[in-house]
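Action item from last week, closing it out:
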Amino acid sequence: MQAEIKVFNPSQCNYRNFVSARQICAGGSSEVARGICNGDSGDALLKQVHGKWVIFGVTSFGPAARCAHSTTADGFTRVKYYKFWINERLKHS
């Protein structure tokens, strides 16, 4: 399934242990409930750049007691932070 979501400034993220260099805070909107649900871990956070879809994040975490809550952002692992590690693993596979 596909949904357009807002990406937040790290200062706007409502998680105490949010690490902005390694994570992206996105989701929660007051207009429509959009966000991650149980079982979504590992799904891609994509952005269209110059006509191509680029993976920016991987679904990681969200509030435990809800699914696609309208006011709470979700946490995504920032792929750019792990790019070197990913490329090294691909070389050896």
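Closing note: The chain has a mean pLDDT of 80.
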